[in-house]
Write the structure tokens for this entry.
Amino acid sequence: MRLSLSAAIAVFLGVFLETAFAQGTPVAAANQARDSKAAIEQNAGKQPPAILPRTFAGWQMQGSLETSADPASADPANAAVLKEYRFTDYAASTYTQDDGGTLKIRAARFADASGAFGAYTFYLQPGMAREVIGDQGASVSSSGGQRVLFYRGHILVDALFSRQSTMSAAELRELAGLLPRIGGNARELPPVLLFMPRQNYIANTQKYAEGPVVLASLGVPVSPNAVDFAAGSEVTLGHYDTPGGEATLILIYYTNPQMATDHLRRIDPAYQPAQAQSGVSTIGSTGSLFYKRTGPIVAIATGTGESDARTLLGEVNYKASLAWNAPTGDRDVHDLTMLILNIVILCGVVGGLAIVAGVAFGGFRILMKRLYPDKVFDRPEQMEFISLHLTEAVVKGQPTHGSETGHATPPDAA
């Protein structure tokens, strides 16, 4: 019985190990297959989802949806601007409600959220009122109706209501929830936006540029050649109230501090990094510009006096953050991690099964011996062994000693 039970356990463990490796080991392979499938779908020219829905919040689309991949269809006057923000496609339609109201919507899709945010800041006007729609929104009312501008993810929406309504914002919030979403790093906004000061900021004055066309349209006293967008730089600016008047703060974000130092010489050829004292952030000036470098950021203040410029620049400070658990997109690292994790889990499962099997076998044996002693285990017929029965013979009477030769005389020989 021991042999049969041991054989059964061995067979069970063999089947379990085969199943575990057949299902657990291909976790990395499954991830690769999934990623490969996603890549194939992307490369196969799969059409992206429609930007605008047919219906939302009681609004019904009239006619067919107008679509185009040409930025000039979305805005003929600013096609170059949209192209710099990595415009991908455009959709427009007119919606109606049962009460006779009309709503014209134009929506532009970009490669990532940075492009949608940049386009939002480009079209944003200082007189607009802030609205809680999508990621950011603003509206303005006039005799011609109510215009609402907002973006969510990588889509910018410009909506024009034929008449004002207190429910307009709520209806557009429902629309924002129906817009296609983008995943991964493409949904993240530019990191340079985190370093814009909030104190004394004038609402709706922030702008974001990713190319020379947008920067030139902003009228800032820094040329696109000095910024050098080919180096991967990004620019954001905003207006601030200061005691000396309205000031403009410009932040130029580069990929590393050395690149920021090299490009700062294009703004001020007299700039010398060696003149900065250890532990002190030096503020320089050239004409009406005041500047400083903090990490990979070049901060420039203009339009105000030196004292106000220094105060404003003092609020811009780069702080590098180090994260040990930062996610990685390296597929090989992910696969190796999953393989090690599966091995650890498999070892734990096998060890647990071994303990359970041992306890079950030993407990069953002890229970059977107590309930059925000598009937299931240790039965007499199983416990017998060969015995010689070597015992000393019992002799009646006194023994007779034989001759000197040592041979004994039989007792009945007398």
